Fold:
Amino acid sequence: MNQLKEAINSSPDLDTKAKNKAQKQVQILATAATNPTDKKEEAEDATTMLQGIIANLPPAAAFVTICKGILPPVKDFLGL
Structure:
């Protein structure tokens, strides 16, 4: 999750509003990781939001690359 946060903060492809939204979604995923059963729906929404954010970015953007590497195992861990 720290990699995602750092990638969001350093991304020149995201404006401040998008960065704030992405950071919020990462925080939701971090919270869900401690209690996957109760936070499953929120985590699913958060991954969908993050995927929507990266859909509008250049494929080579660092944030996109990191998301594509991190989100699948996070989704597996949370049972999404």
Q: What stands out?
A: The CA atoms of residues 32 and 38 lie 8 Å apart. DSSP finds four helices and no strands in the chain. The chain has a mean pLDDT of 89.
